[in-house]
Structure formats: structure tokens, C-alpha cells
Amino acid sequence: MALAEGQVQLRDLVIGPGTPYRFVKGSHFNPFKREVRADQGGARAWSDGSWSGAEWAEQVTVPMRLVVMAAGAADYVQLMSHLLAAFAPSSVDVDLRFVMGGTEYLMRGRPRLVDPESRHVDGHVYVQAAFVATDPTVYSGVEQTVTLELPSTVGGLTVPMTLPATVPATVTSGRALIANAGTKPTGLRLRIDGPVVEPRVSLLTPAGTAIVRVWLTLEAGQWLDVDTAARTVYANGTASRRGLTTAEGAGWPVLPSGIHEVAFNAALYNTDARASVTWRDAWH
Questions:
Q1: Does residue 109 register a pLDDT over 80?
Q2: Local structure of 41: helix, strand or coil
């Protein structure tokens, strides 16, 4: 479903302009409030002031003060039922999508509150709702994906020649440029399809080359799902292979802002091996 400017979507419910769920005038949808959490801190024992350890962004509460435009008691019950279904408890994070400036974004978290402020069942009924983004990152609404084959070599010295002689060779496929248009590093989701022996995916950035390598062999029809942000590795969608995985160089690949190169490789070449790299732009 394509959202219009100013609209917000939670599960199947769309809120905002053109819907029966409107934001109260003067109470704008604001997903950008941020607070900082310091895991360690306190007064300095032998000096003025205090000290603070590592700091992180807190979860974000996104309040939504709505007016539900009901046409009568029956309509009120229907509209509130849909609102409650959208804000129902969840065992996993759900997406909160919104459009600003013609671009769709999303945040991930849990619905937390639906509180009607009056008992009216006709006309304008005010409701206080809230969504808690357990991950405070703002992501692009659209995912990007590139699919890589293993690198192969064409050309080069293949017949006897009088030396010295130079015949150029070109490496094809296996590499691509990928871009994060946001301001915050974003994780990569990798799907590696066999047959492939000891596959590895590398991300080349100014900070160094980050490599994730899985020390196993995939047969045809088998695959790996790798999440470099969560640092999880699953074979065929179920069995964890985290114990057979190493992060080398600069560690687990996380895509910084800007344009960077990603590469797919393996211990042996196979024309059918594939690696799909999927990511979203991310903002603080």
C-alpha cells in the first residue's frame, strides 16, 4: 500500500490525512525525539564533576493524539476495533511506516497504548495512542538488494608466448557498489545460496575490510541467512551456524554512510553460487 504525504501505517491501519483517524491539530506526529542512556556513570571519587561510560540512544516513544471521526455508535465500534487491532500486543517488533517530504520511512518496535479520552460514540472522539520504537533508528521504507556471483577471470596468459609478455586478465562479477544514503551505519542481510564451499562476504570501507566467513559447504538447494546487525547465521532457515562463522578484519560488516564496495567469494568457484545483499538506509 502506497502511503500519502503525512500518513502513518501500523500493521494494516493507515492514520492521517484522508482517513477517519486524524492527528489532532497542533499535535504533530514526531518520531525524532531522542534521549541518551549511559550504562556506567557517577560521581568522580577524587575530582570534581562526574564521569560517564559508553552512551547509547534510548528507545523512542512516539505519541499519537488522534481524533476518530465516527458517524455513529456502530461506526465508532468498527473504527475502534480496527485501531485496537493495529495496536494489539506483539511477540515480535512490528513496523511503523510514515511518509515525510515524499519519502517513506519506518521504525521498528511495539504498540503500547490506546486510551480514548471521552465516552462519546458520535462525532469527534479523541484517543491517545503510543508506539515504542525499541530500535530508535529511522530506516528507509524501501529495501535495496544486489545479487552477486562468485568472481571469475577472463583473458590472461593461456598459451605459450615469448617472454616478457603481458596479457591482461579481468575479474568479472563478485563485486558491487552499495550505498547508504542515511547518517547511521546499517546492518546487512545476506542470503547465500549453494552450491558453495566456505562462502564469505566482505565490505570494503575506509575503516578497513570487514569479512563474515562461514566454514561449511552448502549443496545445491541449501542456503544461509546472515544478519550482520543481529550477528545471527541460520542454515536453511532453521539451524544456527553461528558457531561455524567468523568475523575477520574490521569485524561484522555494517554499511556506513556513503558508497562502499561489497564482495562475494568462496574457497572454490561455482557458477551457480549466489549471494544476495539486502539493506535499508538508516538515520539517527
A1: yes
A2: strand
pLDDT band with cut points at 50, 70 and 90 for residue 264 = very high
Reading the block at residue 218, the C-alpha cell is: 552448502
Q: State the DSSP H helix or E strand holding residue 208, giving kind and residue range, or none if neither.
A: strand 208-214
Half-sphere exposure in the Cβ direction for 98 (13 Å, CA): 19
Q: Please give the grid coordinates belonging to residue 30.
A: 514526531
Q: Count Cβ atoms below 10 Å from residue 44 Cβ, excluding itself.
A: 9
pLDDT tens-place string over residues 150-196? 998 555 445 454 444 444 444 457 999 999 999 999 999 999 999 99
The x, y and z cell numbers of residue 251, run together, are 569485524
The radius of gyration of the chain from alpha carbons, rounded to an integer in Å, stands at 25
Q: What are phi and psi of 118, to 5 degrees?
A: -150, 170
| CATH placement of domain 8-38+49-138 | 2.40.30.200
Helix intervals (H) in the chain: 73-86
- Total-model pTM: 0.86
Q: Name the residue type at position 153.
A: T
Distances, alpha carbon 211 to alpha carbons 69, 99, 258, in Å:
53, 35, 19
What type of residue is 28?
H
Cis before 164 (ω within 30)? yes
How many Å apart are CA 136 and CA 109, to the nearest integer?
9
Domain boundaries, the chain: 8-38+49-138, 144-283
Between CA 142 and CA 149, with CA 148 as vertex, the angle to 5 degrees is 160
Which among 213, 211, 212, 202 is positioned nearest to 260, based on CA atoms? Answer: 202
Query: Which pLDDT score, from 0 to 100, does residue 45 have?
Result: 83
What letter would DSSP give residue 73? H
Of 173, 180, 172, 149, the residue nearest 253 (C-alpha): 180
Domain at 144-283, CATH class: mainly beta
